[in-house]
Batch of 2 targets.
Target 1
Amino acid sequence: TVGTLQVEPGIVIEQAPSAGARVRAGEAAISITVSARPGEERAPPRVPVITAQPEETPAPPPPTPRPGPQPTPGPAGAAPTPRPTPEVVAGNVRRTRVQIIVPEGGVREVRIVVIDETGVHTVYREQHAPGDRVDQTVRSQGYTIIQVYIGNQLVQEIRP
C-alpha cells in the first residue's frame, strides 16, 4: 500500500533517476522502490536477488626497480651504461561488491566463483537460510567473470 493507493506486489512505484532519463554507466546511483504486501517486507524473495557494483581500486604504486647489475663504465668521457631495471607490474586489479538475498526454499549453499587472468577460484562458500543477505567484496585481475551459485545451480554471471 502506498498512501491510500492499492498497488499489486512487485510493481516499481518509485525510481530515481526518472523513467527515460539517460545516465552513463557508473556515474549515477539508481534506486527503485517495489511494492510489497503488508507483512511480506521481510519474507524471502521467490528468486535470488543479486546486485554487483564495481568499487574504486586505488592506483597501483609506481613500478619498483629490482637490484640488478651495476652500471658498466664506458670509455673515458662517455656516460656509464645504465643498469637494467626490471619492474614489478601489478595487473589490472578489480574489486566488485556482490550482494545476494537468498531466495525461499530452505537452507542452501551460496558459492561465488571468480574466473579471471589468474584462473578459477571459489572465493565464498557458506550455507544460508532463505532471506539471508550475503555481502562480499570480490577481488579479481583483468577480464573477469563472477559466477553466483545457489544450491549448486548457477543463478547469475556478472562481468564487471
Note: Confidence is low (pLDDT under 50) at residues 83-89.
Target 2
Amino acid sequence: ANQIKQMQDQVKKLRAENTRLKRLLRQRAGKTRIGFPVARRAKRIIKLGGLWAGTPEITEQDIAQARKEMWGKFGDRDL
C-alpha cells in the first residue's frame, strides 16, 4: 500500500512537470532558443572568434545550405 502511494505521488509530480513544460513551450512559440523571433533569426549574423576570427560572416542561410549539402545524400551511401 505504501509503495502504491509513492507511485501515485510520483505520477502527480510528473503530470505537474509536464503541464509546466507545455505552458513554457506555448509561451516560447515563435521564438528561437535565444529569444529572437523566427523572422529575425534568418537575418542574424553569427560572428566567429578564436581560430575562426577574420573569416567571412556566416548567416543562418549559409549554415542551412551546408547542412543540406552534408546530410542530403546521407541515406544514399552503400555500406
Note: The longest strand covers residues 45-46.
